[in-house]
Amino acid sequence: MATLKEVLAGQISTARQNAKEFVKQYGTKVIDQVTLEQIYGGMRGISCLICDTSSVPADKGLIIRGRPVAEVANNLPEEVLWLLLTGEMPDKANTEALRADLAKRSAAVPEYVWKVIDAMPADAHPMCLFSTAILALEGESAFRKRYDEGLRKEDFWEPTLEDTLNLVAQTPVLAAGIYRKKFNKGARIAPDAKLDLGANFVRMLGLDDKGGEFTKLMRLYLVLHSDHENGNVSAMATATVNSALSDLYYSLSAGMNGLAGPLHGLANQECLNWVLGLMKKLGGTPTKEQIEHYADETLGAGKVIPGYGHGVLRVTDPRFECFYEFGKKHCPEDPVFKTVKTVFEVIPGKLQQIQKIKNPWPNVDAASGSLLYHFGLTETLFYTVLFGVSRTMGVCAQSLWSRAMMQPLIRPKSVTTAFLESTAKTAQSGRLPTA
Ligand code: NMX
Ligand code: MLT
Predict the structure, then answer these.
(1) By alpha-carbon position, which residue is closest to atom 25 of ligand 1?
(2) Hey, whose CA ends up nearest to atom 37 of ligand 1?
(3) 360 lines ligand 1 (CB under 6 A)
(4) For residue 155, what is the DSSP state?
(5) For a substitution probing ligand 2, which of 363, 386, 387 has the most ligand atoms within 8 Å of its CB?
(6) Beta strands in 143-269 (DSSP E)
(7) What are the pLDDT digits (tens) for 70-124?
(8) What does the DSSP 8-state code read for residue 123?
């Protein structure tokens, strides 16, 4: 049986050769054009990043290594990690080897990180604690040690793989430790070497899961948030920092700081708070008319409806659909889930009436919180940390491949407003001249 590292080593040497010949033959071909509107509009839609771990077509949503996300939704997170890294689904033996490897690594979180977390203010947001914990572990980076010893560019991917596996194994431990401290749940619970990633995470959180349904949800959660191509804030931040050869601890921490924003990962916290606020105000499950009214108040106050809209998607997010199906199967009568269902019946129609909104449909964050809430994870402040634990898989896999392909420092060109003004006025059409 070939190990993960051996599989990757074989793929990397072929991919490097292919890329070299590809760029030599087609290097001057024009792939996309940049308009003034796009420069002013958050670079939306400009095709200028390479990402092979996943893609997000606007009309389909997440595709992981060629497989629509719904097809892999019931796989274990370990299997999806292998898929993200190699493009192949692992066999049983590979999955078990990876599971056991991650379980072993999860037991090796150094004690000093808890002192750092303990020293943080009690009101620090769990995402701040999570990002800080990742950064505090930077001294553990295999990449940094090997780089300081004189690592060759061809070999950068090897310690990046080591850092990837350690981070994937240890971020659930950090997250669970933060959860138990922040919400006064008692002492930390150690991982169990016999369990898989999802089951271990549930164990370490210390929440009741007699029927095993919460573990199923956690596995699903870890799979669905694992990757979303490279253009989203957390992935791009991670990739940019890693391109400076800052190791994955620096890079992932930077990515998590981006995920902590309400327009990105924090929307899962905001979304359930919005739903709970609605239920509290109305004293139970609201009617469609009441939801319309509440949405009008939100929009009227200049706020966004969290969990709806997307920078790329123009259809209902298939990750939302997976969570929605899970809810219909496992907790159809839960009042919070029922409210989320009615919100879904109302909000797209409401947002469709606002011309500037390009996508009125729910994104990944619209239903996930109601399911966590049902299984007793009621601390909404913690929800984005769960997103972060999962996203660690995708962004680390992306960086591994960037280093494997020996991609250079990310350094696009900025221009001044004066340059744009003078150039745009004289440009006929199409691409602007180089600054
Ligand atoms: N509620 C109210 N207004 C919205 C919404 C929404 N859900 N979605 C977009 N808009 C507004 C947006 O604020 C912008 O207004 P303005 O021009 O006044 O600034 C206008 O519509 C055009 O935005 P779009 O081009 O449709 O969307 P954009 O690509 O700029 O932003 C999001 C995408 C996801 C940031 C935006 O849809 C949003 O803020 N959604 C709510 C927050 C959310 O759910 N984020 C999670 C995204 C997924 N994730 O987990 O990371
Ligand atoms: C994500 O999963 O990263 C979000 O849907 C945001 C995005 O893709 O822009």
Answers:
(1) 358
(2) 309
(3) no
(4) G
(5) 363
(6) none
(7) 999 999 999 999 999 999 999 999 999 999 999 999 999 999 999 999 999 999 9
(8) T
Distance CA 258, CA 148 (A): 28
Q: What is the DSSP letter of 226?
A: S
Transcribe 10-57 into DSSP letters: HHHHHHHHHHHHHHHHHTT-------HHHHHTTTTT-------SEE--
Rg, the chain, Cα only: 22
68 DSSP β-pair partners:
63
107 vs 113: CA distance, rounded Å: 13
Instruction: Write the DSSP symbol of residue 267.
Output: H
Angle (deg, nearest 10), helices 267-282 and 335-352 = 110
The kind and range of the H/E element at 55 are strand 54-55
The pLDDT of residue 426 is 87
Q: Where are the alpha helices (DSSP H) in 312-382?
A: 318-330, 335-352, 368-374
Q: What is the mean pLDDT of the chain?
A: 97
In the predicted model, residues of the chain with pLDDT beneath 70 are 428-435
How many other β-carbons are positioned within 10 Å of the β-carbon of residue 433? 8
- Which numbered ligand comes closest to the C-alpha of 299? 1
Tokens of 128: 């701040």
Q: Does any ligand 1 atom lie closer than 6 A to the CB of residue 358? A: yes
Q: Is 52 a catalytic residue?
A: no
Q: How far is the CA of 232 from the centre of ligand 2 (A)?
A: 5
pLDDT score at 120: 98
Structural contact between residues 402 and 16, judged by C-beta atoms closer than 8 angstroms = no
DSSP 208: -
Starting from the edge strand earliest in sequence, which strands make up the sheet with 67-68, in order?
Answer: 54-55, 63-64, 67-68
Predicted local distance difference test score (pLDDT) of residue 104: 97
* Atom 16 of ligand 1, nearest CA residue: 356
H runs (alpha helix) in 283-331:
288-300, 318-330
Contacts for 156 with CB less than 8 Å, ≥ 6 apart? 143, 147, 245, 403, 404, 406
How distant is the alpha carbon of residue 174 from its chain centre? 17
Task: Give the closest residue (by CA) to ligand 2 atom 8.
Answer: 232
Rounded-to-integer distance, Cα 381 and Cα 184, Å? 14
Query: Is 263 a pocket residue for ligand 1 (Cβ < 6 Å)?
Result: yes
Measured in Å, residue 29 CA sits from the centre of ligand 2 at 29
